[in-house]
Amino acid sequence: MERYCLECGEKLRGRADQKFCSDQCRNTYNNRQNKDETTYMKHINRILRKNRRILKEVNPSGKAKIKKTSLISRGFEFKYFTHVFKNKEGKVYYFCYEYGYLPIDHDYFALVRNKNL
């Protein structure tokens, strides 16, 4: 049974489980397969990096308090975060990597840095 490269269609020689004739064809095929997903992921990762950078800039000491409007004016996007932490008192912290924020009274946020990460 003849087998052909999934990318360029060239006849394959060698191993029975071979799918591509070269590394270039394998890379080109996989890049095309993942293009839409990769574009979306790049967009989300760009937002997460920006959110982290903003939190780092406004919280150089590792603990701070800031108004919500101050974060928004810098371009912070609240719906994007990497993980959530709920402490023993039930307070929910939202994190962008090691930098986090806790919503507190009157549109303020307590900012923290997790040094364990």
Shape call: elongated
Give the radius of gyration. Answer: 23 Å
The sequence of SSEs as H and E is HEHEEEE
Q: Largest sheet, described in full? A: 5 strands, antiparallel
User: What is the overall pLDDT average?
Assistant: 94
Helix content: 25-40%
Relative strand content: 15-25%
Quick overview:
The chain has 117 residues and is an alpha+beta fold.
What does it look like?
There is one protein chain. The protein has two helices and five strands; from the N terminus they run H-E-H-E-E-E-E. With 117 residues, it is an alpha+beta fold. It has one domain (23-113). A five-stranded antiparallel β-sheet has the order 1-5-4-3-2. A hairpin with a 5-residue loop joins strand 2 and strand 3 (92-96).
Q: Which characteristics define this entry?
A:
single chain; 117 residues; alpha+beta; 5-stranded antiparallel beta sheet
Give the topology, please:
Elements: H1 23-58, E1 63-67, H2 68-73, E2 83-86, E3 92-96, E4 99-104, E5 108-113
Antiparallel strand pairs: 1-5, 2-3, 3-4, 4-5
